[in-house]
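User: I'm putting together notes for a lab meeting next week and I want to include a structural view of one of the chains we've been expressing. I don't have a solved structure, so I'd like a prediction I can at least talk through. The sequence is below, exactly as it appears in our construct file.
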Amino acid sequence: MSHNAALRAQVSELTSAICRQRQLLQEMQTRLHNLQTQLDSIVYPILSLPPEITMEIFSRCFQPERDSVNANEASLLLTHVCRAWRLLALSTPALWSTFCLSAVADIPHLSEIAQTWLQRTRNCPLSLKIDGPLPNVRIPQFGEFIEAFRLLSHRLRALELHLGVFNLERIDTAAHPVQFPHLQTLSIRLLFNQDPLNHRGPIKMFDGATLLREVLLEEVPPSVVELPWQKITKFTGEQYSPKRCLEALRLMPQLIECAFAVLGDVPDNLGIFFHPRIQHLTLFESHSDLGTQAASMRILEFLRLPALQALRLHNVDGFDAEALNLFLLRSSPPLRKLSIRPLLNLTSSRAAPELSPAFASLGLIDLEIWHTSRNFVPLFFDSLRRDATFLPRLQRLAFLGCGARYDGASMGEVVRIGGAAIAARNTLDCERLQSFRVLLADREAVHSFPAEVLLLFKNLKASGMDLYIGSTRESVI
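Assistant: Thanks for the context. Below is the predicted structure for the 477-residue chain, given as structure tokens.
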């Protein structure tokens, strides 16, 4: 074969190969089209939901702790899934109702982000959380932060600040005049190792927040911040001395609900403070204090609260039954709920209120006791089974954390003694017990009980009583 003929043969062969490849490509394109048509025809359940339901699902996608100005958080992440979800996310004001800022100095164009966020909230109230130190006043980021803060303040319903004292003063000065016409909830916590008394003057930016009703201050004395104290109805003071607690209470004549984590020494000259409106009181130990110098129970020595309906003593160190009894005698409150949970450590005392006339005559509906003492259980149930005037309105009873202490009442003791007492109680001329819960400490194994004890509780449950006896994972009834 000549050279020319060989070249023509190669050209012909390549041309044929190209035709075959084109045919294969055409076949693959046809298959792709058919597969895509089938795929597009599939109805995904999430995409078939009405927009209103999808938007409600979106609004529940938040983590308890979040940094909203973050591409991995729900607000921004949902806008990158698909076009339909982006439109829905941008049309769901609840997704944008919380604006969390941490490491403010590292967020560029903060004022522009705040403006966009506000537009997406529409008329939805806004919550703002600022966590961590602010940028230095001399750098541009501080000016951007103040501009964003002013912009957001007019729409805020809730504000949470975790800053240093000087940061608060800088905002107060640089943002003046700033208004909070819709602010209802305010929380101020100081950064670690900050001295709340090391400040130039009171923070004044909140004194015109006429709708403010709920306030939390951690380590911040009432004198440090000017608030519409006369209108506050709910207050939490963390790491407050007994004297500071009383100072705060005197400022709030309309207070209905309050909580204190009290620490420090108790002065000798504190008198009894009378408050006619407080209905709910919680005493607890601050997580940041870790129980050192804890004195939350001692504040009861200086209070008279004749309107009190709910008292919660949670993780208190040094439970004092006598102090509780004297408080009840002094206040004669219409108490409906009592929850006692001592701090669980080797030195704390066990939960065992005195079975005094002041306690027995309470109109309690709900009684919850953690880590109760072994001696208290038979005395309590003996009174419950035979005396209709002992806690005559009691409907819900719970013994929780059984077996958490080596010298505390076990679950077996509570169940064996309590079962017969409850059955007898329900024959007396008083309120029938409607709910009984006995919960083990988490590390304990569920007990096995004699058949007659289980039968007794099964009969109580069949009669309509709400029963739970076991661990956090399972009930034996």
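A couple of points you could mention at the meeting. The radius of gyration is 32 Å. The domain at 45-96 is CATH 1.20.1280 (Monooxygenase).

User: Perfect, that's what I needed.
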